[in-house]
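Ops channel
N.P.: pipeline sanity check, posting one input/output pair.
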């Protein structure tokens, strides 16, 4: 991950001085050109003469909050296409009711540095930047890879998820076929509220073609919301499981052997670099 953000300029907006320093140092250490602002007002002044590749912004800013700041950016023809990630201490879907300006990615506060780095690199995936698919930047085509799995499976959603320390799921990235630029995965979702708990318990691929008739999901809270699911566990080099790559949809449908093989192959490709980043 040493040069994962090489050539990428990042604006970080955060009112807590210690957090701002940590983010600036961490992102700078992986090659980013980082500029910082302690408020939306300061950031807007900075943006009068500069356009970053990507924005990382706290939602709970004093004065002009993160949502209003993003609305101002989206109204500016020169700045409106800057991809933006938000840091939020609120569980669930922080963007509900804020349709006028939506961040493409929400990160739980605090987040591990690798999660932030992968999110920013993924947001910049389609930006013109040097070294866009190198061993040092394995996440560069993550969104495209997940989109390919979505096409292969026929599922609307494809997620790369990590088991967090508090028994919740963290989305490294979730691809939504209907809104491909936005990661819609809720923050702080308990593992047991997802079919990923079945993968974790089984320790192997878990397939649900129709949850409404599958006895294994009879008592699961998502049974009436998500009918189709295929998930593959992700393992570190020491054999411990740290997450899943999964496809899911509200409509039931048979899941072919080809889809199962494709998801398993994707998991094996992802494991080496992701397992190191999120080592126990």
């Amino acid at each position: 991950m040493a040069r994962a953000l090489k050539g990428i300029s990042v604006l970080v907006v955060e009112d807590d001085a210690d957090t701002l320093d940590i983010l600036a140092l961490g992102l700078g250490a992986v090659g980013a050109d980082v500029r910082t602002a302690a408020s939306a007002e300061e950031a807007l002044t900075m943006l009068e003469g500069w356009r970053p590749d990507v924005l990382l912004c706290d939602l709970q800013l004093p004065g002009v909050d993160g949502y209003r700041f993003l609305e101002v950016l989206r109204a500016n023809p020169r700045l409106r296409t800057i991809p933006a990630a938000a840091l939020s201490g609120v569980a669930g879907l922080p963007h509900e009711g804020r349709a006028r300006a939506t961040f493409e990615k929400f990160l739980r506060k605090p987040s591990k540095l690798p999660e932030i780095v992968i999110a920013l690199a993924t947001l910049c995936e389609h930006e013109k930047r040097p070294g866009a698919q190198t061993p040092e930047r394995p996440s560069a085509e993550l969104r495209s890879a997940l989109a390919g799995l979505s096409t292969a499976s026929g599922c609307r959603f494809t997620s790369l998820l990590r088991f967090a320390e508090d028994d919740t799921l963290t989305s490294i990235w979730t691809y939504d076929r209907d809104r491909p630029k936005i990661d819609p995965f809720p923050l702080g979702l308990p593992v047991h509220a997802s079919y990923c708990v079945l993968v974790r318990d089984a320790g192997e691929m878990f397939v649900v073609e129709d949850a409404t008739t599958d006895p294994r999901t009879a008592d699961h809270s998502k049974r009436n919301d998500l009918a189709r699911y295929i998930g593959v566990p992700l393992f570190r080099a020491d054999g411990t499981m740290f997450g899943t790559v999964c496809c899911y949809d509200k409509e039931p449908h048979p899941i072919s052997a080809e889809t199962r093989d494709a998801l398993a192959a994707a998991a094996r490709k992802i494991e080496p670099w992701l397992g190191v980043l999120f080592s126990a």
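N.P.: looks fine end to end. The first strand starts at residue 9 and ends at 13.
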